[in-house]
Amino acid sequence: MPGNTLKRRCIWLFVGGLTLLPGFAAVAADELVVYSGRSDKFVKPVVEAFSAKTGIKVVLHTAESTALLNKLRLEGAKTPADVFISNDAGNLQVGSDMGLFKPLPKEIGDVIPANYRAADNSWIGLSARARVLVVNKNNADAMAIKSVWDIADPKWKGKLGVTSATNESFIAGMTVYLQSWGEAKTKQWLAGIKDNAEGRVFSKHSAIVSDVAAGKLAVGLVNHYYIFRHLAEHPDAPVAILLPDQGEGAMGVAWNVAGAAVPKNSAKAEQAQQLMAFFVSAEGQRMFAEANSEYPTREGVPAADEVPAAGSYRVAPVPMAELGKQRNATVDLIESAGMP
Description:
Layout: H1 2-9, E1 31-36, H2 40-54, E2 57-62, H3 65-75, E3 83-86, H4 89-97, E4 101-102, H5 106-109, E5 124-136, H6 140-143, E6 160-161, H7 168-181, H8 183-197, H9 205-213, E7 219-223, H10 224-233, E8 239-242, E9 254-263, H11 269-279, H12 282-292, E10 295-296, H13 322-325, H14 327-337
Parallel strand pairs: 1-2, 1-3, 6-7
Antiparallel strand pairs: 3-9, 4-9, 5-7, 5-8, 5-9, 5-10
């Protein structure tokens, strides 16, 4: 599984083509360049609103978060990037540990609770997603599931949908479980879901939701917003969201955040900080939340109406920075279990 190992660990290999990602053309001196690991539809409305307010142009260079972080490292002082956006807290913390980012002023970073940013404000979380279970409402046993632990039960053999273990959300969720359960229990759980998946893993969460809705699967482990996307298109679909691990003393739901940082070699740090300040403003936070049914990380800004309200359920108290700091330990465990 060498290819998977490289992707999971974010090992930095020099690949000539990496510095020539599609669409990376030269930009004017007065434009702010954003390396974005998120789809344009989630970021473009926010940066357009920023440009309308400030007159500062923003150019999005979009690719996978890991590839962009690698590109940023390779470019060094020559990077044109002024802001880096990742869809995963793990990548952000890896970049911070490598010294790629410039800490933000407290008046910007401290707007976001400490659990959702780096300790030194070198990156901040902008929107959060919950790791939940999607179940078929016609399956009474599935509707009765209480914990993520339960999906490792052999009763779900051939009825469980999970993504590939190279998926960033899978790795992030695993880190939360590992921190909450410990190594032995987490390894036992991995063995159970591997067996239940019967060698079939998914590249997309949306495909898991679709198969659960069609009755091909009983339960799937997904990010919460994929369920609401499906219901928006198929309002009568027999799927439900289950928020696991809510009992007394339970670990709570695993969260992950998309976030942003200012590269230390940005030539336009002041303008970049203006953009970051807009990202964490109430207006920016509402826009991020509405674009993808995610949770604002700024307290007091409500999530979209369709999602369970933040604070209405227990969230695992694992700081988002740990998703990067513990990444290698998580990957070691995943690989020892032989997860595809």
